[in-house]
Design brief:
single chain, alpha+beta, Nucleotidyltransferase, domain 5, 17 helices
């Protein structure tokens, strides 16, 4: 009989559960999906009951796959920033408002009118941002006062799952620091910010460490999930922090971060001290290992390529698109692409930013357009990286996400960022990181030991010293400014 730990990631499109042995090997997994609701333009919501039924089903499947093993704990991860409002009986009052919901622009202005932007950045690591939980609470108080009056407490998505599993309410710093009201020095709720906004810290659950036991599995769930009553439930981490743990990225090694080419593009850089960008152009959150991390996001990375395919090349697969792009030289023969198809997060914090191709001529063809798109996403990530560089010691990035399957795109990224990229043999994501945190939280191993165990040989891509994107990057920045003036 072997010991295994479970990890569960409550994502936006679905949930993934994994079982991991004490060497870090995944031995079982299951996924389930659930719908995304958009009752008004710019609004995104989900029903927490859908999360629960999907999670129970996925955990039941995994528990069946490891029936002969001893389960030692379950770690939690999930989408950050969402708001689950509970009444005094612990019942959900309204659908959860998600991380990518844009209804809170006025609430953001209200917050920064009361708490100066510079003070928010210094205390919480971030300005007020539309997707964060705190503006959602201000919106609820203003726009749905009856629902707010019923609200005893608000939870983040994964923490609501933890509450259903254990009956206890808790959160941890990596996810809580994405609410907009955690003091990064104390890693606890910032009572001064909350009091200034007329809110009580009692509106939020206690903050415990990411590897702490938040509660134990309720006995009435044993049959439906197939796991033993009293199983320790570990607080875990927000999806980005948990995924970084799964890649072996911690504040014990400040030279290694990650870059993800998913629907959005994300650069993750660990820190050992809470050092924000003074202008708040990139995020600063707590890491699940007790340290901190910078996070920069460009909203349409592989999402830009998917949009291109679905709009202009519907019956073309991605491999064919990449083959076409290889026919265009570095610089795409002068074509420049701005990937702001969904607004932009870092470093502009501009929901109204828009995309563009420029410098087109009759001589240009599809290879140039695709190559320019790949380069435009890389230049957008360079805009993030440029802000991070004075704050971070990172010199190597682990590349993940669907876009990282393209050697061409990775080479473009390495050339634009002038940084070494490494590609892991496997990428297990946030559920895997949550399982590793459960191993640590139950005392089966130390974080240092488990991170050493999971490190593996990786392919490396070095920047080409003969290719420079300095001029295209200057043009990229100028193009954003030019388009902003005509909106």
């Amino acid at each position: 009989m072997r010991d295994v730990a479970l990890g569960l990631d409550l994502g936006t499109s679905g949930v993934r559960a994994v079982a991991v042995d004490l060497t870090g090997k995944v031995v079982a997994q299951a996924t389930r999906s659930y719908p995304l609701l958009s009752p008004h333009p710019g609004w995104t919501e989900q029903n927490p009951t859908d999360w629960i039924s999907a999670s129970v089903s996925a955990l039941k499947e995994v528990s069946g796959q490891i029936a002969g093993d001893r389960t030692i704990g379950l770690g939690l991860s999930g989408q950050m920033h969402g708001m689950v409002a509970l009444n005094p009986e612990g019942q959900v009052i309204r659908p959860a408002i998600l991380w990518n919901d844009q209804r809170t622009e006025q609430a953001v202005s209200q917050i920064e009118a009361i708490v100066p932007r510079s003070s928010l950045i210094q205390r919480t690591g971030n300005p007020a941002i539309t997707g964060f939980q705190l503006p959602k609470i201000i919106w609820l108080r203003s726009e749905e006062p009856e629902a707010f009056a019923q609200t005893q407490q608000v939870l983040l998505p994964k923490d609501y799952l933890g509450y259903v599993l254990t009956g206890d309410r808790f959160t941890e710093p990596s996810d809580a620091s994405g609410t907009g009201c955690i003091n990064l020095e104390t890693r606890q709720w910032d009572t001064e910010v909350l009091q200034a906004l007329g809110l009580s810290a009692d509106l939020f659950p206690p903050v415990i460490e990411s590897t702490a036991i938040g509660g134990k599995l309720k006995s009435e769930l044993t049959e439906s999930i197939g796991l033993p009553a009293g199983l320790p439930i570990i607080a875990g981490g927000g999806d980005n922090a948990a995924a970084a743990i799964g890649l072996g990225i911690s504040s014990a090694n400040l030279r290694q971060g990650s870059i993800s080419l998913g629907t959005s593009g994300v650069i993750f850089a660990p820190l050992d001290q809470p050092t924000p960008d003074p202008e708040g152009r990139i995020h600063l959150f707590c890491h699940a290992d007790g340290g901190y991390h910078l996070l920069g996001v460009t909203l349409a990375a592989a999402g830009s390529l998917r949009w291109y395919r679905d709009t202009f090349a519907l019956h073309t697969d991605y491999a064919e698109l990449m083959a076409l792009a290889e026919r265009s030289p570095a610089g795409a023969r002068g074509v420049l692409f701005l990937p702001h198809l969904a607004g932009e997060r870092s470093p502009y914090l501009d929901p109204n930013a828009r995309g563009a191709w420029v410098n087109l001529a009759l001589a240009h063809g599809q290879p140039d357009l695709i190559r320019a798109l790949l380069e435009g996403v890389a230049l957008s990530l360079q805009a993030v990286h440029q802000v991070m560089t004075p704050l971070s010691a990172v010199d190597t990035l682990i590349a993940t996400g669907g876009g990282a399957k393209s050697k061409l795109w990775l080479q473009i990224l390495a050339n634009v960022l002038q940084m070494k990229l490494v590609i892991p043999e496997t990428e297990e994501g946030a559920a895997y990181g949550a399982a590793l945190l459960a191993i640590v939280g139950t005392g089966a191993s130390s974080l240092e030991k488990i991170l050493k165990q999971i490190r593996e040989d990786k392919k490396t891509i070095h920047p080409d010293p003969n290719i420079s994107y300095e001029k295209p990057f200057q043009q990229f920045q100028a193009l954003y400014k030019s388009l902003k003036t005509v909106r």
